[in-house]
From TrEMBL, chain B:
Gene: ATPase 6
Family recorded in the similarity comment: Belongs to the ATPase A chain family.
Keyword Transport: yes
Name of protein: ATP synthase subunit a
Organism: Ceratitis capitata
TM ranges: 20-39, 72-93, 100-120
Amino acid sequence: MPQMAPIGWLSLFIIFSLTFILFSMMNYYSTIPQSPKSQILKKSQTNSMNWKW
Amino acid sequence: MMTNLFSVFDPSSSIFNLSLNWMSTFLGLLLIPSAYWLMPSRWHIFWNSILMTLHKEFKTLLGPSGHSGSTFIFVSLFSLILFNNFMGLFPYIFTSTSHLTLTLTLALPLWLCFMLYGWINHTQHMFTHLVPQGTPAVLMPFMVCIETISNIIRPGTLAVRLAANMIAGHLLLTLLGNTGPSLSFMIVSILLIGQIALLVLESAVAIIQSYVFAVLSTLYSSEVN
């Protein structure tokens, strides 16, 4: 097959393994896992004051 | 004649006789949302929800013996195969997963790693896995034989299943399309509607096959421990 001739299977194997590793890296850094949220939200006392230095 | 039939899969995108077809494998890398920004965009949220659903599913499959982060490789495997399968449906984009080179590259090292790890570190466990639960004592020799053979052909089946599914759909579409120029106008419109339906089926098959590949490798890895 003509497209298999210039590059051998070994280099294709290395290229695809590196592609897999690249995909893994992209997915690892782009996932934002959800941390479990607490059911009871503790709302601390807030006094609303006018802003001043 | 057989090489002629499959010669539709020989891509013609070559610059200076250097075939750049395999560069379509990297297309998925451009589509995965990059993590440069703090606030997630809509694409981020969508991709994240897909990955989290898969993560929960694989974690269930791996059972209590799965360590933290053990689903990660299977989720990224799913994303690689999904993008390659799906992009191949668009015109002029090479389907890299329809070639045994890519599928064997993915399947063989995974299976080999699981087998080597299992047989070297948990030899007793691997031997007990050769006999499924609840087999009568009479059938045990045959079950060992069958399970050994099924174990050995696993990388082959993983690779060939994916490649054959991808090739079959494309081949069907190509064969239907090749008859187009010799038909009348009415039949050509029916042919086009049929081809569009096949394309929808092919997109479903692309997603399903990538899922099957990932799930099966999860199962194979969970058997080891």
